[in-house]
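Task 17 of the worksheet. Students: predict the tertiary structure of the chain below and write it out as structure tokens. Keep your answer in the requested format; marks are given for formatting as well as content.
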Amino acid sequence: PTPASADQVVVRIPGSVVRWPVLVALVVGVPVGLTSPAQADSSGERFPTTNQVIAGSGWSNAANAYAADGTTATVSIVTNNTPRTTEFGGFGFDAALPTGATIDAVTGRVIWRCTITNLHLDALAVVGGAAVAPSYHNYPAPTSLTTRTFAIAGLTRAQLVDPTFGIRITAVGYSVFGTYYCALDVVSVTVEYTPADPPVALPDSGVTI
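Model answer:
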């Protein structure tokens, strides 16, 4: 709920929340629960703990993309127009996002590179295998390890804490002939949120003003 202004108190009656001027509350002598405005918070950068191949042969040594440490997952592009996709999951948002939190922003981060620029890299948020946000597309591909961050719009807490939430990372070449490689150092997701706004109990927990 919207916080009370400086000259109001929030009166919580079962089934409703009423904002009364302070003087009214003083006159009628109602029990008052003061509400402290919730402060925005962050999940911190969350890293995957699981992976599964979705298309082609996926990324080799995919667990190397669980941390930004310079050790990379790799993929070879040897067939034109054939994607190689691995889904990364297990970000642990069920422990990072409190019940009732409002999701303000979700940001994905990858560090990747390819041996040539004429390759395409994509990141897609999914729940239960279905896309839940537009795909992030990076072309031309960087040829040295490069950080890319991207907004993942419209996600809810329910989607983020779903055990099937994941980020699918794809490498594909179009009009590419020969064998080329891509490397992925890390995949991560950070969530900015506002927690629910419960009333703050007064010291004696039942004072009537």
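Marker's comment: The first strand starts at residue 8 and ends at 13. Residues 16-30 have pLDDT under 50 and may be disordered.
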